[in-house]
Amino acid sequence: MEKVLTMQRVRVGITSIVVLVMACVASAQTSSVNGRVTNQQGGPVADAEISLVPPPSAPMPGMRMPPASPDRTVRSRADGTFALDQVPAGRYVLEVDAPGLARSSQEITVPTQQTFAVSLEAIEVPGGEATSAGAAAAGATDTQALLDRIKVLEQRLSDVESGTVLSEPETRVKRIEVYVDKNGNEHDEPVQGAEKKVTYQRERVYRRQWLSEKLEQAFADQDSKKITVGVSAASVTQFARQTSGDPAQARGHAYQLASADLLFSAGLAQYTSFFADIVGLSGAPPDAEIHGLTLLNSYTARLVRQNEVNVREAWLRTELFSQKLALSAGRLDLTNYFDRNAVANDETTQFISDALVNNPTLGLATNGAGVVGVFDAKNGFAFKAGFQQSNSDATNLSQSIFSLGEVDYVARPPGLSEGNYRVWVRNDNGTARNRSAVGASIDQKLTPIFGLFGRYGTAEAVSGRDHFYSAGFQFQNGFVFNPLDFWGGGYAQTDLETGDHERLAEGYYNLQISEKLRLSLHLQHVFESPAGAKSVGFLVPAVRLQARF
Amino acid sequence: MANAKRFLIVGAAALMIGAALAGTHVRAADVKVADPTSVVMIVNRDSNEIAFMDIKTRKIVGKTFLGNNVNPHMVMMSPDGRYVVTGGTRANKAYIIDARTLQLVKVIPVDIAPEHLAFSPDGRWYYQGNPEGDSISVIDMVSLTKIKTIPGLVEPLNTVFLPDGSKAYVGNYGAHWVGVIDVRRHELLKKIQIAEVPGVAKLDPAKYLGEIKGINIPQITNDGRYLYATDTDLGVAAKIDPREDKVVKVIRVGKAPWRIYMNHDGNYAITPNNGDQTISIIDLRTDKVAATLEAGENMTGVNFAAGKAFVISSTSGFVYVYDMKTLRPAGRLKIGSNIQLETATTDTADEKIYLADSTENAVVIIDAKTEAVEKIMNVGLFPWGTHIMDSKDNYCH
Q1: Domains of chain A: which residue ranges?
Q2: Distance between CA B247 and CA B268 in Å, rounded?
Q3: Which of B340, B333, B271, B258 is nearest to A378 (CA)?
Q4: Average pLDDT, whole number, for chain A?
Q5: How high is the pLDDT of residue A373?
């Protein structure tokens, strides 16, 4: 029994020693963090929160930062002193918070013999609710604090003056929904017997705005209410050098055609706008002497009468069904809606030969009255349908009607960039019987800088069919002198059922001189092979100067 | 002996309980946000506050008022989730908010018109860009003080840190170079010109001397290996190797690219080109433009979710959608008429997009998969941007 008791004493003794050793070790590895919290005037801040949090540390690669571990927090006593005991050795951030006062934060290393003197500044929230501590701090404001405050205000005034920031509120009108009862009383929330109505109300906001921004906005607001006027002007100079066939009238002649379009647009209502294009042309294009199946200068298609101004387009456009369907009606140029080939569709910047701008089998000779609808859900598919009168001598709307339909698709063939693929069908009642035509138009980027295009069309003629083909390429952003230059080449062939043929090739380089001015050099070659007659060929160098602003 | 044993056991227990109590988290102010990843932060520019919306309940759980005439611009949470910071553009101050209590804990004077900001990866440094002061204010997140102002920049918009935190890259919108900052010394180390101004620029003073629209942000790739920076005037995206701090590739994109946004899979990046209303999709494996697609007007941001890109067209009221597998257009979402959309953030699951709809005082939630749209009204006046901790699409405009 005595032996058992002795053994128990030994065990208790060992346990006691182990516990004591652990306590001593624990005591050796921890220490206290002491300090005092005061306000700016040196007064004690009682009940402030004093926390120890881990310092920022770099996250492991590929890992997000772990959330901060729980704080160790104590409160300051009535005299502002505090003590955090049993703090393990290491690096910490000592944070001190009190209502209405800015947080104090500093990195410390434990163990430390330092007694931390923490002075909290008042936090300034203009327009915010005053706190009791903030009010107390304000109450204790002495003369020096007031002088400091005046200094800060002077600096702020100087900043405002130097920055010319507008302090006036901005006025904005908002569309709001309200609830109006039988007595005409307006409520912000639904009430019994009140109907929901839409009204408009002004609100004022304060925003940092520089004078320049305010002026810019005012000008933009004015502009949005005005008719916008744009100008597109071009001068095309061409030279004809005969390369084959019997000597022709055009041999060695030079030609020039100047064109100026005035473009007007204005917003009329929500999603409804008006557009007009008034054009004047003057000069002699080569097409008056080289009688080809297509025009050597596509601008010639606009030439109605020399030195006269004509209305080329004038239409209204409105957008329906979440702006998916756009309807345009008036005097139209349907080539702006159908067969919009990205590489070969613009005589102002790309090819100048009409055979490389349009598809002759579309058959539109002149602009006229019509309607076109474009349904585009912006998912890569677009559907277009329209009709247009293409005879300025028609006496009623039923004559010379061209009806067109087209399906567009944006594709990305494997390994290639995007391309646009279109098929269209057209019907013309301008002759004794309806004549139809079908065609396709493709533009496909093979690389980011190199794209191809191709067109095909076949049209019903008197007894057979006319056929048209064209193909070519364009380089953009590559192999150019200046970054925004581009160049291309193309070939077009027209075969009529009458046996007339035309083969045309063109190359061009378009140089950007400035944002609004471009110069392009062209070289065309055309073979005209009329049925039963000898072929004739012309080499036609050309220069085009194009301004748009 | 028994008493001694009892004393020792009680003493040890008291020691342990005391230590446990000392470690207990106590806060006087209410904890309004327990999980920093659970909220969307909304910058309300005209009501001068940051609103916090619970992602699950879609309720505003708190707002931190910053003071009259502050006009906060961009908000961001510190990497450790402890703080939310914003720059008050009108007040020329940086604001630090406790992310749990939503209390404003510090206001720090910075330079003129603070807008965009960034944290170093370790959360130690908060870089506040001051576009009108041509500087960056460096704020120490331990002492919560401004320790330095880095001068010599030209309308600095966005700053991006390398993953190792050694350098930061600054987009200068008033110039055509990216600034490289040594984060150890907080000094401008180098200027990287991302592309040459074309020779014809001298014939076009109205464009090149009238106003510079340079570099918005040098955006870092998901693997942290390269940076891509677009220049709005020059119409290019430049690839920068941060190991040598030099441009290794210049990619021409559409006209007037606003900035570049990285797809979450790391294969593609998108530049919204406001000059020709297109987007350029850049294949980051080949550094070539994989597709140029039609888009809307005044684009202010791109978000990625559910395998799609959502491109915000600010003034049209539409968000354009693109399939990032086929690189083809996939429709557009009508958010409203006569409204102005700002920027958006994507949740960490890549499922929902939170879009600031400023003129309606609303946040629009877009379900990326179904493309359903829900508006949360009255979040504050003129919400300018949103932010979710750890989102891959946290940006501002």
Answers
A1: 29-59+68-124, 170-205, 227-548
A2: 19
A3: B333
A4: 85
A5: 97
Question: Is CATH 3.40.50.300 what the domain over A29-59+68-124 is classified as, yes or no?
Answer: no
The answer to whether the Cβ–Cβ distance between A205 and B4 falls below 8 Å is no
- The CA distance from A321 to A148, in Å, is 62
3-class secondary structure, B367? strand
The answer to whether A23 contacts chain B (CB < 8 Å) is yes
Each residue's pLDDT tens digit, B131-142 = 999 999 999 999
**B110, B94 in Cβ contact below 8 A?**
yes
* Token code pair at residue B76: 């961001």
Q: Can you name the residues that pair with B228 across neighbouring β-strands?
A: B219, B239
Taking the Cβ of residue A217 and every Cβ of chain B, the question of whether any pair is shorter than 8 Å is answered with no
Question: Which stretch of A50-59, A185-194, A482-491, B114-123 has the lowest confidence by average pLDDT?
Answer: A50-59
Q: Which helix (H) or strand (E) holds A219?
A: helix A211-225
Per DSSP, A308 falls in state -
Tell me how many degrees the CA angle A252-A254-A256 measures, rounded to the nearest 5: 165
Q: How far apart are CA A312 and CA A270, in angstroms?
A: 25
Touching check for B333 and chain A: CB below 8 Å? Answer: no
Say whether pTM exceeds 0.90. Answer: no
Interchain contact B165–A (C-beta under 8 A): yes
Interface of B with A in 301-330 (CB under 8 A): 318, 320-321, 326-330
Q: For residues B368 and B307, what is the distance between their CA atoms, to the nearest angstrom?
A: 9
**How far is the alpha carbon of B317 from chain A, nearest alpha carbon, in Å?**
10
pLDDT tens for each residue of A170-218:
777 777 889 999 888 999 889 999 999 988 888 777 776 767 777 888 8
Asked if B67 and A124 come within 8 Å (Cβ–Cβ), the reply is: yes
Task: List, for residues B309-318, the tens digit of each pLDDT value.
Answer: 999 999 999 9
Distance set, CA A117 to CA A26, A38, A278, A436, B140 (Å): 27, 8, 81, 94, 20
The answer to whether residues A371 and A387 touch, using CB atoms and an 8 Å cutoff, is: yes
A227-548 folds as Porin (2.40.160)
- Residue range A437-459: mean pLDDT, rounded: 96
Identify all chain A residues contacting B79, using CB atoms and an 8 Å cutoff.
56, 59, 64-65
User: What is the DSSP-derived secondary structure letter of residue A549?
Assistant: -
What six digits make up the tokens of A245? 């066939």
Does B89 sit within 8 Å of A163, measured CB to CB? no
Closest by CA position to B246, among listed B261, B221, B231, B229 = B229
**Contact A68/B81, CB-based, under 8 Å?**
yes
Assess whether pLDDT exceeds 50 at residue B19. no
Q: Across the interface, do A59 and B121 touch by the CB < 8 Å criterion?
A: yes
Give residue B314's identity as a one-letter amino acid code: S
Is the pLDDT at A64 greater than 60? The verdict is no
Let me know: does A350 contact A453? Beta carbons within 8 Å. no
Query: Which two structure tokens, joined as six digits, stand for B242?
Result: 């941060």
- CB of A21 within 8 Å of a chain B CB? The answer is no
Q: Percentage of residues in chain A with pLDDT exceeding 90?
A: 55
Count the helix, strand and coil residues of chain B and give each as a percent rounded to the nearest 5: 10, 45, 45
Site from B43, B46, B141, B162 to mutate, A interface, most A CB atoms within 10 angstroms: B46
Chain B residues with CB inside 8 Å of A512's CB? 200
Radius of gyration over alpha carbons of chain A, in Å? 41
Q: How far is B189 from chain A (nearest CA, A)?
A: 23
Label residue A327 by pLDDT band (50, 70, 90): very high
Q: Determine contact: B174 vs chain A, CB below 8 A.
A: no
Q: What is the ipTM of this complex?
A: 0.84
